[in-house]
Amino acid sequence: MSTTTAIADPRQRLSDTLREAASKYGLIAVLLALPVYLAISDLAQKGTLTDLGNNLVLGLSNGAIIALIALGYTLVYGIIELINFAHGEVFMIGSFVAFGLWGTFGIHEGMGVPGMIVGLLAAMLAAMLVCGGLNVMIERVAYKPLRNAPKLAPLITAIGMSFILQNVGILWLGSSQASVPDLINQSHDLLTVGGVVINNGDVLAAAVTIPLVLLLTTFINRSRLGKAMRATAQDPDAARLMGINVNTTISMTFLLGGMLAGAAGLINLLYQTSIWYLQGFQAGLIAFTAAVMGGIGNLKGAVLGGFIIGVIQQLAEFRLGAEWTAVVVFTYLIMIMVFRPQGLIGEETREAG
Amino acid sequence: MSTPVEMPPPATGPGSAAPLLATEHVSKTFGGLVAVNDVTFEIPERSIVSIIGPNGAGKTTFFNMLTGLYKPSVGRIVFDGKDISRTRPDRITTLGIARTFQNIRLFATMSAVENVMVGQHARMKAGLIGSILRPPKVRREERDVEEKAREMLSYVGLAKSVHDELAVNLSYGDQRRVEIARALASDPRLLLLDEPTAGMNPQESDRLTAFMRRLRDERNLTILLIEHDMKVVMGVSERITVLDHGEKIAEGDPIEVRANPLVVEAYLGKQG
Amino acid sequence: MSALLAGTPLKGRENFAIAVVALAAAALLPLFFDPLSNITNNCILAAAYVVMALGLNIVVGFAGLLDLGYVAFYALGAYTIGWFASDHFSSVDGGEGFHVAAGEFASNLPGIHLNFLLIIVVAVVIVGIAGMLIGLPTLRLRGDYIAIVTLAFGEIIYRFAINGDEINFAEGYKLTNGRQAISPIDSIDLPFFAPFDSAFSLRPFYWFCLVLVGVVLLVNFRLRDSRLGRAWIAIREDEVAAASMGVPLVKTKLLAYATGAAFGGISGAFLGSYLTSVNANNFTFGFSIFILAMIILGGLGSIWGVAIGAILLSFINTYFIPDVFNTVPSKFGLDFDLTILNFGIFGFLILLVMVLRPQGILPERRRALELTEGVGAGDAIEVRTP
Q: Which residue, of B168, B186, B204, is where some domain finishes?
């Protein structure tokens, strides 16, 4: 046999690498532009970075919620290469279910801390189970039967489901945003670091998200099902030949994604102290932006993207007003799609063909 | 046959020394994988040339670079005196290169006639407004294009009864015919056929090789084939180029190539 | 009829005949009702939605580009008339206003007032350019990503519409009037006809819209059976093969976006005038899905199907749900307003159609094959059921 071919012209490899680096660092530069600009202007005008610090904390906490939802998108996309259009609504239902259970579990303001922790954990688990199941049902109705159809078919079906779920929200609690009892006294200043305030809410967000993400990554990397998921994501036909039940694996992936969305639903309740049937639509698009920014299909990317988008969103809200944050985030989404669809740590895709 | 639209005057012609198509040190890398490595190659006008090689040798990748689907990582491709290394696929078709695909890529929900009409897209002039207003010029063009499509289908041997049949309902052999007709519809000067005899029995292969000769002689076409069927290759090629692991390992007329030990080794593995 | 249901396309002459008969019958309809009847109102809305649905059908049905942000073109068309046929820009020319063939009444008002026919031209230009700008980022993206990007654009335009009253680009020149709406909008004043007056009779609006429907039907049929139409289908089925056959991908896709957008813009301008107000509240994502549902229900890619789907869904929305179904709960002794189930009913309809009969009521032959048998589905999902 002839010897393996030599590497192609080193000049070509260099220019490929440069192009890749340019788009990656270009994206990072664009992302950093806003916070850096604000830092400089804050220093110039106010002399301290506390505003920026506070916004960072708020952004990261919000980002934790977004990260959980983004993980759901990325898990599903990794395995069937499709966006779960109804995922945002699953998150919304999670909030509704958790809220509904507060009464049932006797959780109320002013109850003792241990009781509250137990109650909230129970509500979260319930929400996770319901949302997991809901996501599986969405897969069974919208995605599985249309596997051989053109891609727009399952997308449209999922949109139909998301509208139905939104209506469930309207029927449950009406069409306007409602406020929710501030169970954990979320705005209570827990500690202050160098002028930057950290609330109960921020601690909660971190305290729930970090363990969940660690659990998820451990599960994906160590368990049999996790391995099956990774194999199916890489090559479904090969996975099937190895004896993996691809259908079950896909359903399990939807289950996991749904559970994460359910957890996010509960945290959102406690953190935002509000609930609304449209919160899923909004959060869904933002979380999808986060997933794409990190690199769709990449779990670390989803978490990273979540935090980044959370910060961007918070900074935009602070400077431009809440009504413009969506525009900022969606502009980022479009830019990423055009200039670097593989996100920060995703893989380069093949050209043409 | 109607005069093709927008065809540049040929820089080469029968009897001229310049090749119709030439690649100069062309390579293609995908990430870490080198699919084609430093291939320099020429096709003289009005000839039938084959590219052969074991599976994975980079033949289809090479084709894809010739038709603009991939851009070469290194090197140049020159067609009719023009550098087409970075030209878009549809522009390349307008310039005069047409192709078929290894795994037939007809437009499944279109009829055979409609498929061939799409093949003439580059030779038609009707734009958005013309299509809406349908002035007599456009109506005539539509009629001519449909007529030419049917002619082309008959030329490649498709029975009239199935001209209006949906592509997905045609037999495998008929689908191959339609693909060739569709490629011919753009009045190319160079026709690239990617494994055209795959799935054919010996009689069908013979008919196809005879047809290729007809194309060369009657329509002044230059044909470049990728082929696995050695009988076809040896029978119809004026010259053969052999690729292995992305590199050109041999080139020459059928007798030379057949006797070349490197070629034998590439196909059968090292002996002894 | 059975041919239509099976999806075989009709000949040009047959289509023309059907169109003439249908439009003539439709034109006679309002004569049976009071000039200001609510039924005529519903018919006008239905006709306007038919125009939009046929526009979206070009993008999604013909070219296969899943555009979920069609409301952006509705909004831009509406704001075209909001800006150029009202007193929104009241400071123009020191309060004197700028008028072009604006008709007796409007010629003395401040603000910019262009004749409605001019508005249509301006709207087509604005919306056509917007369509190409929105389409540009999607050119190298796959199906579901196109959906998200167009959705994002739709949302961005919605936000600008809602918050446009905060944006002043010169003294007294606001971008939009947000939820307060730009109002009143000039009525339609055509040469040789008396100006339309919606306080007097709705019929002229209806007949004008029927003319729009006729034009749009003509454009659709002509394009479908043309070089461009074939190019759109080829791109939808197999982009790579299409490009290899000489179809320029960028130009062809942008033409689809621009043409589809133009219809949305024209209809948007018409609705702005008819409703005599341009309110940002109308430009939500839900509207994009409303129009999409029409083409799904009617039959993706099928011109007659989409028209029927649009009429059906429009009447379900404006008549059946509020007036007919809403009487049902009280018959059971329930105090329940069914109109809040709008979302859910549409979602359920979409679901039902996609699962039971994805090719829609009046299927288009090719799409029916793609949707029911997965033939030529160039981008079907990788995982195949064993």
A: B186
A:3-62 residues touching chain B, CB 8 A cutoff: 4-9, 12-13, 16
* CATH architecture label of A61-339: Orthogonal Bundle (1.10)
Its ipTM equals: 0.89
Same domain? B148 vs B67:
no
Domain boundary pick from B139, B159, B186: B186
| Coil, strand or helix at A111 | coil
- Nearest chain B alpha carbon to C258: B128
Contacts of B270 in chain A (CB under 8 A): 1
B225: helix, strand or coil:
strand
Show the domain range for B124. 107-186
Give dist(CA C325, CA B104) in Å, integer.
Answer: 52
The single-letter DSSP state of residue A140 is I
**Distances B257 to A32, B46, B52, B242 between C-alpha atoms, Å:** 60, 21, 10, 8
B223 and B266 part of one domain: yes
In A, residues 67-86, which contact C (CB 8 Å cutoff)?
80-83
* Topology at the third CATH level for domain C2-373: ABC transporter involved in vitamin B12 uptake, BtuC (1.10.3470)
Query: What's this model's pTM, rounded to 2 decimal places?
Result: 0.89
Q: How far is CA C306 from CA C43, C220, C363, in A?
A: 16, 11, 9
**Nearest-CB residue to B37 (from A8, A351, A352):** A8
Q: Model confidence over C224-252: pLDDT tens digits? A: 999 999 999 999 999 999 999 999 999 99
Specify whether B130 is located in the same domain as B242. no
Q: What are the domain boundaries of chain C?
A: 2-373
How far is residue B159's CA from residue B153's CA, in Å, rounded to a whole number?
8
Nearest to C381 by CA among A242, A145, A9, B266: A145
A85, C14, C344 from A162: Cα distances, Å:
7, 40, 9
Which token pair is A298?
């990449």
Q: What is the 3-state secondary structure (H, E, C) of chain C?
A: CHHHHHCCCCCHHHHHHHHHHHHHHHHHHHHHCCCCCHHHHHHHHHHHHHHHHHHHHHHHHHCCCCCCCCHHHHHHHHHHHHHHEECCCCCHHHHCCEEECCHHHHCCCCCEEECHHHHHHHHHHHHHHHHHHHHHHHCCCCHHHHHHHHHHHHHHHHHHHHHHHHCEEECCEECCCHHHCECCECCCCCCCCCCCCCCCCCHHHHHHHHHHHHHHHHHHHHHHCCHHHHHHHHHHHCHHHHHHCCCCHHHHHHHHHHHHHHHHHHHHHHHHHHCCCECHHHCCHHHHHHHHHHHHHHCCCCHHHHHHHHHHHHHHHHHHHHHHHCHHHHHCCCCCCHHHHHHHHHHHHHHHHHHHCCCCCCCCHHHHHHHHHCCCCCCCCCCCCC
User: Which CATH number belongs to the domain containing residue B33 in this structure?
Assistant: 3.40.50.300
| Per-residue pLDDT at B79 exceeds 90 | yes
Q: Average pLDDT of each block of 10 consecutive residues along chain C (386 residues)?
A: 60 84 88 85 94 96 93 96 85 75 75 88 95 93 89 95 84 80 84 81 91 94 94 93 95 96 96 92 92 93 94 89 69 66 85 89 86 65 32
Of C156, C340, C358, the CB nearest to A327: C156
Q: Are residues B123 and B242 in the same domain?
A: no
Strands B74-79, B21-30: pairing kind: antiparallel
Contact flag A12-B30 (C-beta cutoff 8 Å): no
**Total domains, chain B:** 2
